[in-house]
Task: structure prediction
Amino acid sequence: MFLRIFLILLLLCGCVSTWHAPDDFLFVPVKSGGYEIATWQKITNSTDEIHIYIEGDGRSFDSRGRPNYDPTPRGTFLRNIATSDNAANVVYIARPCQFIMSDSCTKSDWTDGRFSQKIIDSMSGAVKGIANGRPIIFIGYSGGAMISGLIIENTPELNVKNWITIAGVLNHADWTEYFGDTPLSHSLDMDDLPQVKQLHYIAEKDEVVPLELTKKWVGEENVIIIKNATHDAFGDFDIDFSD
Result:
């Protein structure tokens, strides 16, 4: 099965205040691990597989490299993809402290601890509750690729059929070293990729997660390079959900 996506993106105008989910998607806050996590859900079949989209890092830092007070993403890239998915069960999951600032949120949760054990535990708990035993196809964007991979590693009881990443960070130590950035010292990393069926979409002109890094992480197999795409503007492309 293929999902055909038609996206002409003006991401800087895509702030949450101007974005409206389609009527068949419900906004459902999910409590997990001390956080209230924002989700938009379309659940129409109690047994069919579920497509779970994991958001990227959002606005972790400002233009001067200082931590933002609110990491909510302005762009609607992944929300647009998720709400264009015609599968029976589709859920978009934001990261802790995006859209909803829980009492337990600290700046570490979207900076050096964005992939910490407590963040992964909270996301894993949310996914388990939402999936409720259904087979899962994960689609992780940018830092959401790292989150989804760590969920798979840390929650082996999940029934994961496929892991799909889009412009994904898959090793944050390599990533920060590449740019000379401060290491994410309170975050988990993946030494090896999860042993599940997987497919990785790479933007040819990605300056946030460069092509050479992704090839280092995943090799040449299970990779699709989207020509002329940048990190948050892929144009028209197909996501392959086939077995």
Notes: The two ends are 9 Å apart (CA to CA). The CA atoms of residues 15 and 74 lie 4 Å apart. The helical segments are 77-84, 117-131, 143-154, 172-179, 211-218. The longest helix spans residues 117-131.
